[in-house]
Amino acid sequence: MNLRAIIQKIRSNFNHHEELLNQTVLGFLRVLESVREEEVPCDEVYTKIDEYVEREVDKKDAAKLMPLVREHLDLCPECCEEYEDLLDILEKTSKDQK
Amino acid sequence: MPTRTNEAWISDLGTPGPAREAALEDLRVIIQKGLPYALSRWLSPDQPQFNSLVEEVTQETLLRVLDQLGTFEGRSQFTTWVHKIAVRIALTELRRKRWRDSSLDELTENEDLPPPPGLLADSQASPETSAERADMLARVRRIIEEELTDRQRQALILLGVQDMPMEDAARKLKTNRNALYKLLHDARLRLKRRLSAEDISPNEVLTLFEHK
User: Are B103 and B29 members of one domain?
Assistant: First the structure.
């Protein structure tokens, strides 16, 4: 790719990135049904996520006991990834111990 | 390895000396037993960087545990709290790397590929459905334009279009992940209320795009 082509590519990428894509608009709509007035921020979920995951591993119906944490996990992909990884660690290490 | 209560962990780690050294060594083993389960969702254990990442994350986790020892509230097992810190450190690094790599790929590898087909360019949809979809998207876009602040829109572009990790998007917007989540939450609430006022159901819009 010559220099001109690279510059064009960067320009077109830049313009493309300034626009909300149709996919993004629909993705935004997809989570609206789950949005509630009351919410907890990422920091609060991070503070509680170890307790939440332990309850889940112990089959103590974590989502019922801590519904706001569950709702946040449904809306925030990054907190949800951290939750899933922590759950994986606890489930598999406790299996190793048995 | 001795089994410690939460109190014993705090006590052993709280003061420099042989008890702390022993506790740190035990924690290292515990972290390195659990972390590969989380990392293997992102990287293959055969990849050369896998072991070095486990080592780096373990080191950083031990430092952070000592630094944040006073913030442990005893809501969970101490070791679960430590795993949580390790996961946060590992994922922050992996997300940054994933985003850097995908941004680079976009500029280099895909240069000859045609742009991805838009949602409206669905060859199987009838002309009526296509028109209906275009009309609905235009309405929703207008509402987003009117309801969202520039900052909310900017956040949506960084996260939803550029796929930037939350931590990096927050830094770019000179805020933190918490405030960024709040910004998005407010945006969602505003949009939800406005759609409801205009009698548009998000599910109906989505259904329109699912059926031909």
Answer: yes
- Whether residues A57 and A90 share a domain: the answer is yes
CB atoms near residue B73 (< 10 Å): 12
Amino acid identity at B65 = V
Q: Alpha-carbon distance B144 to A50, whole Å?
A: 36
Distance from CA of B20 to the nearest CA of A (A): 23
CATH classification of the domain holding B203: 1.10.10.10
In a domain, B120, yes or no: no
In B141-170, the residues whose Cβ lies within 8 Å of chain A are: 141, 144, 153, 156-157, 160-162, 165-166
- In this prediction the pTM is 0.75
Cα dihedral A36, A38, A43, A46 sign: negative
Q: Most B CBs within 10 Å: which of A85, A93, A96, as the mutation test of the B interface?
A: A85
At B152, the amino acid letter reads Q
Q: Are residues B93 and B158 in the same domain?
A: no
Here the ipTM equals 0.75
- Per-residue pLDDT tens over the stretch B14-72: 999 999 999 999 999 999 999 999 999 889 999 888 999 999 999 999 999 999 999 99
Cα B180–Cα B184–Cα B187 angle in degrees, nearest 5: 140
Distance in angstroms (rounded) separating the CA atoms of residues B156 and A38: 21
- Can you tell me whether residue B120 is helix, strand or coil? coil
Same domain, A14 and A41: no
